[in-house]
TrEMBL record:
One of its GO terms (molecular function) is 4 iron, 4 sulfur cluster binding. This is Iron-sulfur cluster assembly accessory protein. One of its GO terms (biological process) is iron-sulfur cluster assembly. The lineage of its organism: Bacteria, Thermotogati, Deinococcota, Deinococci, Deinococcales. Gene3D superfamilies: HesB-like domain (2.60.300.12). PROSITE patterns: HESB. Transmembrane segments: none annotated. Residues 22-115 form the Core domain. Pfam families: Fe-S_biosyn (PF01521). SUPFAM superfamilies: HesB-like domain. It comes from the Bacteria.
């Protein structure tokens, strides 16, 4: 069974999306051509601080996924990423260099300058990782 949270549910704060982030996500999802698609938010090893955020449009719901509906957007988080993303907010940020999605993560104890890579509990980057600062897919 895939855990699902809905507004007002006890787990509704697993992850949220800002109003501006929701507006941008809804526009992207509407143009994706994928029925019942959501924004998959995940963590992978790498980046200058040890972990990187990733995002993708996904119409799959896999075993162990947690589904959160916030501001009309379906957010999908895999079981392995959930612990590192719990309490995070997805946002969309525009600046002079362009715009893109970002994650405001209360679990990150440090991050690199680009904001796509982070570390928790002062841990060092995994062996062989951390050479570059990279971003996600959405």
């Amino acid at each position: 069974m895939i855990p699902t949270t809905t507004p007002g549910a006890a787990e509704a704060k697993v992850m949220t999306i800002s109003a501006f982030g929701a507006e941008k996500a809804q526009s992207i999802l509407a143009g994706s051509g994928k029925e019942n698609a959501g924004v998959r938010v995940f963590i992978k090893s790498g980046g200058c601080s040890g972990f990187q955020y990733g995002m993708a449009i996904d119409d799959r719901e896999l075993e162990g996924d947690t589904i959160v509906y916030d501001r009309g957007v379906k957010l999908v988080v895999d079981q392995a990423s959930l612990a590192l993303l719990r309490g995070s907010e997805v946002d969309f940020v525009e600046n002079l260099m362009g715009g893109g999605f970002s994650v405001n993560n209360p679990n990150a104890t440090s991050s690199c300058g680009c904001g796509h890579s982070f570390r928790t509990d002062g841990a060092n980057a995994p062996e062989g990782q951390g050479a570059s600062c990279g971003g996600g897919g959405l």
